[in-house]
Design brief:
With 319 residues, the chain is α/β, with parallel strands linked by helices. 32% of the residues lie in helices and 27% in strands. Strand 4 (72-76), helix 4 and strand 5 form a beta-alpha-beta unit. The longest helix has 23 residues, at 208-230. Bound molecules: coenzyme A.
Length: 319
């Protein structure tokens, strides 16, 4: 596969650390030094479908395609107001795509790398010509805004990519190790007269230190593994495009790899952790600001609830 168009969209409301400190026992100093996050965008008047639609329109424009050219839609999403129908089927109608298959995936923050791998398989099999990948996330609707531990980390956003047949995905590694306790959100299901056990919904529960440790360890080994598989030297890598969870996580990975800071672009200071949208939003920013040239080698690496990880080596042949 190769990516021929990207797009991204963020909510208009920007929430600063000071705005959070007005109702949480926290401070700009604590959040900035422990996470690197300064602002996050939070959905208020718009919906997640609005953001996803904007991101898709940009990606289609860059790819010089129209919605009717799309023959498969893959959406990565943790949660949205509809448990059913799928996010992708709702988005299909919003963007005016024709009667194509629509598939939702939930591999938490690793969704973009998983989706690239799925699209690549469909394209290689000759089943699909123009796949649309969308990562759209509103973690602001699963965190507990009365607690400071997880709410300060996240923001909302959406990104899209159009992928067509090509040879740009040079190596992929995906992993999942069932680990529920470290990071989970439990929604409350409807009343059922036959279920007697007590059930409560739970806002996002996170063991921050454990996730930090797993993120750093796994990202480092995943990155080394995909570089090895692709036969690529670190010196050949233009950018490491990492999941934007915490600047200290990115820095720990960078130091272990022994690579310079300029190879690790970041935007988490503006947007916080936008779950699976974070990586493709950053990729779109690099693309739109002409920082990606034909022939560049990129390493993508992400991690999230599951505990799931996904990394790949991407050759950039551009649009
Ligand atoms: N504001 C102020 N103080 C806070 C705080 C906040 N938002 N959150 C926690 N604290 C306090 C703690 O209560 C603790 O206080 P104590 O020393 O008096 O007990 C202290 O700060 C240190 O807490 P700790 O949890 O050890 O901090 P940390 O350095 O591990 O940073 C995270 C916490 C969450 C920022 C960090 O662990 C992290 O980013 N983990 C990864 C999370 C992640 O990426 N999740 C998404 C994965 S997709």
């Amino acid at each position: 596969m190769k990516i021929i168009g990207t797009g991204s969209a963020l909510p208009s409301l920007s929430v600063s650390n000071d705005m959070l400190a007005a109702f949480l026992d926290t401070s700009d100093e604590w959040i900035s030094t422990r996470t690197g996050v300064k602002h996050r965008r939070i959905l208020s008047t718009e919906t997640l479908f609005d953001l996803a639609t904007q991101a898709v329109e940009q990606a289609l424009e860059q790819a010089k395609l129209t919605a009717s050219d799309i023959d498969y839609i893959i959406c990565s999403n943790l949660v949205n107001i509809y448990a059913t129908p799928s996010f992708s089927s709702i988005l299909q109608g919003r963007i005016g795509a024709a009667n194509c298959p629509c598939l939702d995936i939930n591999t938490a923050c690793t969704g973009f790398v998983y989706a690239l791998d799925i699209a690549d398989a469909f394209l290689k099999a000759g089943k699909v010509k123009n796949a649309l990948i969308v990562c759209a996330e509103e973690p602001s609707r699963i965190v507990d805004w009365t607690e400071r531990d997880a709410s300060i980390l996240f923001g909302d956003g959406a990104a899209a990519a159009i992928v067509v047949p090509g040879d740009d995905l040079r190596a992929v590694y995906l992993s999942t190790t069932s680990n529920i306790d470290s990071l989970y959100y439990q929604r409350k299901l409807e009343f059922n007269p036959f279920v007697k056990r007590k059930e409560y919904g739970k806002p996002l529960v996170m063991n921050g230190r454990e996730i930090f440790r797993l993120a750093v360890l796994n990202s480092i080994s995943d990155i080394n593994r995909v570089l090895d598989t692709a036969g690529v030297q670190k010196s050949d890598v233009k950018f490491y495009v990492l999941h934007q969870a915490n600047m200290r996580i990115i820095e720990a990975i960078r130091q272990n790899l022994g690579e310079p800071e300029e190879k690790f672009p970041h935007n988490l200071e503006h947007y916080g952790n936008t779950a699976s949208a974070s990586l493709p939003i950053l990729l779109d920013e690099l693309n739109k600001s002409n920082q990606l040239q034909k022939g560049d080698i990129l390493v993508l690496s992400s991690f999230g609830a599951g505990f799931a990880t996904g990394a790949c080596v991407l050759h950039w042949s551009g649009n």
